[in-house]
Amino acid sequence: MGEYNVSIFNIAYSVGKIADLVDSQLTGHHRRVAYIAGRIAEELGLTTQERDEMVLAGLVHDVGALSTQDRVDIFDFKGINGGIHAEKGYKLLSILESFKDVAVHVRYHHIRWDEYPKQEEMLGGNILYLADRVDVLAQQQSNILLKSEEIRTQIIEERGKMFNPKVVEAFMRISKNEAFWLDSMSAMILAPRCEYYKNIAFTEDVMIQMGLFFSQIIDFRCRFTATHSSGIAAVASELAKLRAYSQYECTLMRFAGFVHDIGKLAVPIEIIEKPDKLTDEEYSIMKIHPYYTYQILSHIEGIGKVKEWAAYHHENIKGTGYPFGIQDSGLDEGCKIMKVADIFTALTEERPYREPMKSEKVLEIFKRVEQDEEDEEFSCLVEVLKQNYDNLVAIREAAQRDAIRRYQVFIE
């Protein structure tokens, strides 16, 4: 299996789709902000690279809005708390080398222009701020063409206060035409597309960076989920190694472990953390998460089998798993490695409502799963797990200790 290439634009686009999962009110918000920010940058005569940075920043700007309060703050036009999720977004995006410059724009996208210590150096952040606020105002209107002048008036009133005068003037020029509003509000057009940022090699270092980035979006919603994906990533990678996968394939497996639960952003945290048995309705909501994992990863071309390895961890060869009912040859060994790693990590890690299970209990549960699966390949993986049980526990614990340290830095 050779090295892949991935599109930076597609990564950013997928992050915007992730934000859509967190709150349905945000659906299309990131694409619209990306469009408006790109148009303003173009109108200001910025370079292609600078314009593309604004498009990327628009697509990812609210990635740090992980809590309910963060999402409430987004819709307050002059809200003073937006800087909290902006700082979280900056910390998350700084993990990715390709998003270092974008991260700076995101960090400052809720700071008023008249409060900037060095105003001209923060042009990108202010472009993003204005684009973001325009979309917030637009979503409060039932007929954008009737209300566009009202929005333009609100923006120009903040000239020299919330917004850089040059940015306001550029916006006023491009927003005169009805087509601008129709294009930006449709969320169907995202132009100009990024020309400067195209593909990067999906090297092992890039995979680890991206994996940590996505896992922190998933897990850092609260203290009790802060280490889960890191544990599964470490166990899955080690199982792949024990099954003689190449080093590159093992890193792909680690990346798949990091992202396997990204669809859980569509599941309320109250359900994820519930200590008691889920109701039928709650369970039906929980079952949607692999579907959304698959859909999010579908936006990132060039990641090989990662999409299937990550999203099929609740499937089985009988076709009775969820949510796709994949069976037989549709499930390769990598999917089953992820399933074993997921079960093992869930049982052996500490949960807010119980201590880690002892090895005897864990293996008893695996025996029952084996009997239900009736899958020789799955049973072979369970045997590998048994033979390397203590080492896998140690690997999981080390990975999760690192994750909790990262979480502590993140919330400081």
TrEMBL record:
Signal peptide positions on this chain: none
Every HD-GYP domain range: 203-401
Highest taxon listed in the record's lineage: Bacteria
Domain HD span(s) in chain numbering: 225-347
Record-linked PROSITE patterns: HD, HD_GYP
A Pfam family annotated for this UniProt entry: HD_5
PANTHER family: 3'3'-CGAMP-SPECIFIC PHOSPHODIESTERASE 1, CYCLIC DI-GMP PHOSPHODIESTERASE PA4108-RELATED
The name this protein goes by in its record: HD domain-containing protein
Native organism taxonomy: Bacteria, Bacillati, Bacillota, Clostridia, Lachnospirales
